[in-house]
Amino acid sequence: MSSDRSLDRRIRIAPSILSADFANFGAECRAIEAQGADWVHVDVMDGHFVPNLTFGPAMCAAIRPHIRGTMDVHLMIAPVDPYIEAFAKAGADVITAHIEAGPHIHRTLQAIRATGKKAGLALNPGTGIDAVAHLIDMVDLICVMTVNPGFGGQKFIASQIGKIRALRALIGDRPVHIEIDGGVTVDTAPLVTAAGADVLVAGSAVFSGGSVDAPEVYGRNIAAIRAAAEAAATAELSTASH
Ligand code: DX5
Ligand code: ZN
């Protein structure tokens, strides 16, 4: 059984380039990393599993040289398996598939791990954590969707907070990150880190008001989300230890 108390659970901010300038992805990736982003989150949508279309492995390969850190690829596609190899070759560090994307998520996670990449499992807001128990030792990250996937800028679904807390208890000492995706802002970040999340995806809340010509706005947005998230995580830890 995999158990590792040493997993680094410091808060990570992962801006979603779904909210970036689509004509300027390379410069946008460089700008957010220079402004403090920990990971770069890439939302791949197929117009079938979700009602929106974005980009594929060729775009991931094109931006890879512009990302120094972790490229976090969120696959909102069905089927998933035929494309895993291509996203691995494109330079993804984390490849996340949805539990709802097909009947054989176990096989999908095996296939992701076989590429040597980190495997993520995403759960839609309507999906409970029961099935996760059978998959938890196959994953490096569980992504709790706090909006219905497909679009940036949607409202945070607060009913997911109890799910995050239950998931954190289920994970225990396992080296598995909890990532939150959707509607993360300065106001909602503390709710999810207090419940046990450590990776926060944020699209509109990072990119709004900024541009590659005014990247300091990205820096201020990232710093504000991080400060709110860390304060709540620290407060929770000190409550738990008393
Ligand atoms: C939604 C995507 C998210 C989205 C987040 O389907 O998976 O990553 O871009 O955007 P915000 O932070 O604007 O909700
Ligand atoms: Zn995403």
Count of all domains: 1
How helical, in percent, are the residues?
25-40%
The largest beta-sheet arranges its strands as 1-8-7-6-5-4-3-2
Query: Which ranges are low-confidence, i.e. pLDDT below 50, for 5 or more consecutive residues?
Result: none
- Name the hetero compounds present: D-xylitol-5-phosphate, zinc ion
**Roughly what fraction of the amino acids lie in strands?**
15-25%
Give the CATH architecture: Alpha-Beta Barrel
- Give the overall shape, derived from the CA principal axes: globular
**CATH level-four homologous superfamily name:** Aldolase class I
Say what the CATH topology is: TIM Barrel
Continuous helix count: 8
Q: How far apart, in Å, are the first and last alpha carbons? A: 30 Å
Reading the helices and strands in chain order gives EHEHEHEHEEHEHEHH
Structural class: alpha/beta
What is the mean pLDDT? 96
Largest sheet: 8 strands, parallel
- What's the CATH class label? Alpha Beta
- CA radius of gyration is 17 Å
How many extended strands? Answer: 8
Layout of secondary structure:
Layout: E1 12-15, H1 25-34, E2 39-45, H2 57-63, E3 70-76, H3 84-89, E4 94-98, H4 105-114, E5 118-123, E6 141-145, H5 160-171, E7 177-181, H6 189-194, E8 199-202, H7 204-207, H8 216-240
Parallel strand pairs: 1-8, 2-3, 3-4, 4-5, 5-6, 6-7, 7-8
Bound molecules: D-xylitol-5-phosphate and zinc ion.
